[in-house]
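Quick question, first post here. What does this chain look like in 3D?
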Amino acid sequence: MELQFVAQENARRNQDRYLLAIETVLKSTYMDDSIDSVENDEEGVELYRRLKASWGAANMQARKWISNSPEVMEKIPAEERATEIVIDSGQDPITKTGISWNSTKDEFTVTASPVSPGFQTTKRNILRKIATIFDPLGFVCPYVVVVKILLQELWMRGYGWDDEVQDEIANKIEGWFEHF
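> Answer (accepted):
Ran it through. Tokens below.
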């Protein structure tokens, strides 16, 4: 939390000098990772320059830059780009922010591991599995709410935390897990 406080305090102290960067630091930065969007390549390059200068004013170095714009990426020195980029191998640049972002295709992916073969359909296990889905931007929220409603139904039917669910709701929940 100290890092986040320092970043925000630095932003406030330099708000007159780095206005474009300050909004990103205050509204789109968690710890030392910033995720923001701009209208065009010129704004992307300018945001990079202002953020770099703003972080520099606090004697901090901004690195791991990534953009879906090749024009913006060519303005960023190679040593400052995200290490996940392997340009020569033909792989698309991908970075993790709790979810995966393929910057070439500009696609986000939320991944979840399948349930294990011996998975017991209990309220405890269902909730534990739901809690592994990290979706800070809410992309799969409409999908996850379905299983949460089914979990709520288990509460209304009086199932205990470790009672195995063996009625039609179990089939719906297992089907949900298969499709996620």
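Strands lie at 29-30, 33-34, 94-96, 100-102, 107-109.
Confidence is low (pLDDT under 50) at residues 85-91.
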